[in-house]
Amino acid sequence: MSEEKNQALLEIKNLRGGVEEMEILKGIDLTVNGGEVHAIMGPNGSGKSTLANILMGNPNFHLSDGEIWFRGKLVNEMETDERARMGMFLCFQYPSEIPGVSMDKFLRDAYNSVKDENISVGKFNKMFRNTLKDLDMDESFVNRYLNEGFSGGEKKRSEMVQMAMLKPKLAILDETDSGLDIDALKIVANSVNKLVNPEMGVLLITHYQRILKYIEPDHVYVMLDGRIVNSGGPELAEKLEEKGYDWIREKVGIET
Q1: How would you label 240-256 residue by residue, b for 16+ Cβ within 10 Å and e otherwise?
Q2: Which positions ≥6 away from 94 have C-beta within 8 Å?
């Protein structure tokens, strides 16, 4: 099988996998093009975060079958850092705190690793401050330790800064809206809207419809029991908000 082809930004074929002996994903098919926002919605336990972790090559999750094509290359066997250098980026649902490591140092090291460069401190700091300004964020982020003492909203904004600096081709947002109040949600959503461009695609994983009031998706999918069971446009998210996931369960014959 060839490991290169001309295709979409991301193409997933019959993806199966999970944790340890448990198969959580049961055949996922999905295609994302540059400039598109794809929202995956589903209740807790449906497999959304498992999908995000398998896409990024998290070694705690296993891929048992199927193919992941990214920018024309089969990435099934690639390590997480290789996928990151190709342009994949994951915003975590619960970003970790790293005491003693400042945001600017962490991001400069990440930038050099992903971009395979050795950017000077001065050039990087100027880029960092310009990015904070573009995203309407406070310059205090520069010298603070990574996520230490950050509120939930600050942690998610920190993720947005990282995404803006690294400029990925694919941003996977794993329940980025989780735990945010309305003001923080708007800031995060505005950041995503500013960063989306024709060469970058977004896979937005969420439990609720509320973030989709501020980030309009091109496609919406509903995941239940490790499968995508329905798809549509923004109107599907609105219908889920109105009727809940039981409506979908009844429609496709999946028991609660």
Answers
A1: beeeebeebbeeeeeee
A2: 178
What tokens does 128 get? 């960092």
Reduce the DSSP state of residue 25 to 3 states and report it.
strand
Q: Where are the domains of the chain?
A: 10-93+169-252
Summarised one tens digit per residue, pLDDT across range 56-70 is: 999 999 999 999 999
In this structure, which amino acid lies at residue 3? E
DSSP codes of every residue in 112-123 = HHHHT----HHH
The CB density around residue 168, as the number of other CB atoms within 10 Å, is 21
CATH number, span 10-93+169-252: 3.40.50.300
3-state helix, strand, coil split of the chain in percent (to 5) is: 40, 30, 35
Specify the pLDDT at position 120: 92
Three-class SS state of 75: coil
Residue 1 has pLDDT above 80, yes or no: no
Q: Which two tokens stand for residue 205?
A: 């994983």
* pTM for the structure as a whole: 0.89
Token pair belonging to 209: 């419809």
> Tokens in use for 125?
């700091």
pLDDT digits (tens, 9 = 90+) for 184-218: 888 889 889 988 999 999 999 998 888 999 999 99
